């Protein structure tokens, strides 16, 4: 690990004034510290934002939605009673992150900004993320890579909460170095220019996530988060799915994880509407199968990861049938 200066700040404004190409923010450190140890990140200045007052606040209500500070710990979000009651998909997603130790340290803002977990990238092998013009994983050990939206990097984004936030229509407040605070949808947040291999978000080097907001219209709506992992109960998702049923309307909002370089939204407006509550069980099952097939119709697997398509379809069917079975 290269030597660096360390500074503690008491506000995000103070932090953004210090950040830059050679300066990075430190919150929980569960991703940054390994990156520095592996020399994938070599900052000259580390700006500790973990002590910013009020930046871990969680406020939830059925009438005003939720506002979550970027420094809120994943463990607290997983166990927060109002969040579990009104936004269970996000609560459940936070509960599936890593181990208890990681959840006690990791923050929501940091989790959304973590770097890819591709074996090639993390092992220091030359790839698109480290300056090469190609992705050796695409034609190599690609069983864990993306099946939709890939290229020039095929590493799936590892965040669980980001998938739930996408389905919940969350807004991410970003503080810029000029003092402006910009509100972005999750899709906008994960839409960086393709020429930037050094990050997966639209954040500039001087920017920070300040908070995350959830709309009141989804508070208390029927929702779920399901995840299948590689090996252990603490592992990253092979595939995950978040489903949110709007209180009005018959088309669910579906987001997938583990299948694309960013959280992947299924175009709900193109899905067939769910059968009426009076419909036969067979009709509901056929509808769930059709939705799952349509959600993955544009998937293009690599040589070793076609199983992810079937796995994603299965998770979508399970999530939809669980709701329809309880109607």
Overall SS class:
alpha+beta
Order of helices and strands: EHEHEEEHHHHHHHEEHEEEEEHH
Number of strands: 12
The assembly state of the depicted protein chains is single chain
Descriptive overview:
With 327 residues, the protein is an alpha+beta fold. The protein is built from twelve helices and twelve strands. The strands form three sheets. A five-stranded antiparallel β-sheet has the order 4-5-8-6-7. Strands 9-10-11-12 form a four-stranded antiparallel β-sheet, with helices on both faces. It has a three-stranded parallel β-sheet with strand order 1-3-2, with no helix packed on it. Strand 6 (171-175) and strand 7 (181-185) form a beta hairpin. The mean pLDDT is 92.
Question: What is this structure's SSE topology?
Answer:
Elements: E1 5-8, H1 12-18, E2 23-26, H2 32-37, E3 45-48, E4 58-61, E5 65-69, H3 74-79, H4 81-86, H5 88-95, H6 100-105, H7 108-112, H8 119-122, H9 161-167, E6 171-175, E7 181-185, H10 186-189, E8 208-214, E9 223-229, E10 237-244, E11 253-257, E12 264-266, H11 281-295, H12 307-325
Parallel strand pairs: 1-3, 2-3
Antiparallel strand pairs: 4-5, 5-8, 6-7, 6-8, 9-10, 10-11, 11-12
Provide a short characterization of the protein structure.
By secondary structure, the protein is of the alpha+beta class. The protein has helices at 12-18, 32-37, 74-79, 81-86, 88-95, 100-105, 108-112, 119-122, 161-167, 186-189, 281-295, 307-325; strands at residues 5-8, 23-26, 45-48, 58-61, 65-69, 171-175, 181-185, 208-214, 223-229, 237-244, 253-257, 264-266.
Give the tags:
alpha+beta, globular, 327 residues, four-stranded antiparallel β-sheet, 12 helices
